[in-house]
Amino acid sequence: MAIELRYRDGTIHLADGEDDRSSDLESLPGVEPDPRSGGYRAPAYRYADLRDAIEKGGLPYEERVFDARGGDSLDLATDYRLREYQTDALDAWEDAGRRGVIELPTGSGKTVIAIAAIAAVGRPTLVVVPTIDLLNQWERELEREFSVPIGRFGGGEQRREPITVSTYDSAYLRADDVGDAFEFVVFDEVHHLGGEGYRDIARLLPAPYRLGLTATFERPDGAHEVIADLVGDRVYRLDIDDLAGDHLAAYDIKRIEVELTPEERQEYETAQETFVDYLKSTNLQLRSGSDYQKLVLRSGNDPRAREALLAKQRARNVMMNADAKVDALERVLDRHRGDRIIVFTAHTELVYRLSRRFLLPAITSETGATERRQILERFRDGDYSRVVTANVLDEGVDVPDANVAVVLSGSGSEREFTQRLGRILRPKDDGGRALLYEVVSDETAEERVASRRR
Amino acid sequence: MLRKELLRVSRAGGGYHPQFVGREERPLAARAIGTYQGHVGERRERLDAAIEELERESDDFKLVRGFASLLDREAVFETRAPIPPERARRVAFERAEAVGVATEQERSRARSDAAERLGVDPDDIEQSLYADREPNQYLASFESPWSPDELLDRYNLSLAQTALFDATEVRIESSDPRRLVSAVKRLGLLYELRNTEVGRTLFVTGPDALFGRTRRYGTAFARLLASVASAEEWSLRATIDDRGTERELKLETGDVVPPTGEPIAEPTYDSGVEADFAARFEALDRPWQLRREPEPLSVNTSVMIPDFAFDYEHADFRVFFEVMGFWTPSYVEKKLDQLANVEDVQLLVAVDETLGLDPESSTERRTETGEAAAEVKARDHRVVTYSGSVRVKDVVDVLREYESGFIEREAERVPEEVVPDADVISLVEVAAEFGVSVAAVEEKAFPEHRVVGRTLVRPAVLSEIDENLEPGQSLADVESILESRGLSDASAVLSTLGYRIEWEGLGGGRLRRRKK
Prior knowledge:
The complex is a heterodimer of chains A (454) and B (516).
Chain A: E1 3-8, E2 11-15, H1 22-26, E3 32-33, E4 40-43, H2 47-56, E5 61-64, H3 84-95, E6 99-103, H4 110-121, E7 125-129, H5 132-146, E8 151-154, E9 157-159, E10 163-167, H6 168-178, E11 184-187, H7 199-204, E12 209-214, H8 224-231, E13 234-237, H9 240-243, E14 251-258, H10 262-282, H11 289-298, H12 303-320, H13 323-335, E15 341-345, H14 348-358, E16 362-363, H15 369-381, E17 386-389, E18 404-408, H16 414-424, E19 434-441, H17 445-452
Parallel strand pairs in A: 1-5, 6-12, 6-13, 7-10, 7-11, 8-10, 11-12, 14-19, 15-17, 15-18, 16-17, 18-19
Antiparallel strand pairs in A: 1-2, 2-4, 3-4, 8-9
Helix pairs in contact in A: 3-4, 10-12
Chain B: E1 9-10, E2 17-18, H1 26-38, H2 44-57, H3 61-72, E3 75-78, H4 85-99, H5 104-118, H6 122-128, E4 138-142, H7 148-163, E5 167-174, H8 177-186, E6 190-196, E7 199-205, H9 218-228, E8 234-242, E9 245-252, H10 272-283, E10 288-291, E11 297-299, E12 302-304, E13 308-312, E14 318-324, H11 329-341, E15 346-352, H12 372-378, E16 382-386, H13 392-411, E17 424-426, H14 427-434, H15 439-442, E18 450-452, E19 455-457, H16 459-468, H17 475-483, H18 490-497, E20 499-504, E21 508-513
Parallel strand pairs in B: 14-15, 15-16
Antiparallel strand pairs in B: 1-2, 3-4, 5-7, 5-8, 6-7, 8-9, 10-13, 11-12, 13-14, 17-19, 18-19, 20-21
């Protein structure tokens, strides 16, 4: 009897029938005997290796991994004409056995490469994306390109089709349930897969073909090595400098330093003092994120630590929401009448304050799916020329032709900064240079964050 | 379940102890409920501020937030605005785009334009703009489904569930294994039955856990807890991956109360046949204790939970009892498969006489006889057949065979001649001295005693009693003479000595000599 391979709840189950081939089976990559259910099991992501090893070893086997729902090959074609570097990237991925990560700057057309890959593979495909905005964008793009119904997991919908787009969150929840339906998986913004929970998505899917897309592959925590293990090595890379001026618009950065009002200054100092006093009285030093974590832990049962944390939060709020920043934005908006402007801030409350003050369309995590789609469409079509947002547009969302970005209260994270930059690095019709404003409060901790970034 | 940041655990001694709350937190629970009740008709911002105030007053802000998050699910919020906010926004943003708002004056012009367009007052635009944001919504109604005490129970359960979010494996003992196993399966988890020092334990993990510890199944474990806690007796230990450090969480009966309130005390029966049998067996006085939900037995990689077990009262011996009462071929096949592979225990199976095997679907191995009872016997188990209901007598007969085996073996531990020191001693006491059942001593010789009823008595004691007895004595006098020598069974003694009692009315009687 042949060895039977089946997909079961995020794993590959191997049944040996009546034969005893335990030594053969146990030598296969990733395979372990399972005393709970009988038979053997391997992690789903090892499926391609496993099948290769079985074939090499000449063992009789019966493949039932995708049988249940996979179906026939898809007849897909794309009208996109790839640019040279896009073709190179795709070739490198094909050469690596249709596995691996492509690293390209934001705005260089990663979606186009993925669409070409999906058409070339022609098998049921799951595209995993980090945000609702990207979910909408991919769904629209794939529908337009392939003229087939596109499935969707996320944003309140759970509809499966041979080609389906999913958020990372939905994919995490559903991976062990739908793994047998997809032979190809595309991870957009694949660096997200480094997060401990999200890794499971790639672990639990048996798809032999895998493609990761990102503008920033390497992570400071070394998690990109995990990604290489789950999706494949980086097979192609292009720097932003290789593209700027050629395919991307050039950009300049302007920095505006604003001062706190005397009242704000006072409130800030008072809160900051409470926080520092606590640190002094307890001999606690904050050198790293884990020190801060310690303080958070302590606040669970120490009311003074909690008070200190709340004070720190107040200080940060004062700094983030400084009235002068609103005034600075007024000046930018006044100066750039007729331009297309995106305003960023990490603070949801500040987004709404600015939205109210300037009557700017706002997108945050609170914004419902319909309204967010509508605002983006109106921005794209030119009905709106300005939009204010809290981070959700950070990655890859297609917002064409914005030429001014204003970043208020930047968080100092390298990744966010490049990707926000990337937002306006779209080729402009008239070739005009894009402009990025950075608005920071003067003489506060925030300034140090901004200077660290240089 | 609570959000993870509201988890309150102590890591004292390297453990992982959820900080359950008791009646001392009742006033706080009552105030939390009161805060919600008191803010009906107000904006959420006000409610949140009041809860924050409560946090400040309490020693533990996470506890207050935990209460609030449970209560929040019962609250109904609504948007109150002169015009639908989304519409107000769209029109306001369109007008702002036309005006190109930067200054305050420009804003005010755009707002007036929008108001005019919608035929409302500019203030209505202001009020409606973000009236649908959470902090601006109104608490429309709130009905607490819990009293303060019930909120504490609910909180404790949610807290324990939250503690399980980071579990990588749970190990459970339960007085209701049937419910447990079916809940494990329903949640897509896998189990393994292992014998541990605390008994038969179900080790529960998820499919992917075979390849390394994972917290992926934490929420499934949390859901499982509700079923676990429904058993009358249970204990659960979980391995927690606490940011890389492994800790053990222990929970047991009483720590948490199942969500429905009362634990389910009575085990449920699969079929009327079983319930009926239990009632009739318990009415008999046999040296066996009937257990209704015995521990699970391992069958290769799965378990079988027999309907009953009989525990022999005089020895550590258990006979499992399974009633095969369904007729579908797949059920019969599954049962026979289980019976062939079940671990080595004494198992008695009641087989419905009408139970046949389907020759079409059964493999050769299974259909040598084509008859269920024979197939069960072929798998080395004892069988009784029944139709309609299981005859208690048939089962008792089988148990008797076990008993006689025991009695023989016990009798070997007792000498052929038994000479107790006491002048008067019951057979039960003699058996207890040897640690055997009464039946094992009954057949022995007692050279220095006479067997009077169920008691051994030295002949000297009997003569002494005889001398004190006079025909015509009242029953009460006779009984006190006997009791002074430790004899309670008056009729057996009197009959041995040739007396009887002549009954008078209801209470008394007189001693008479028995006619020869």
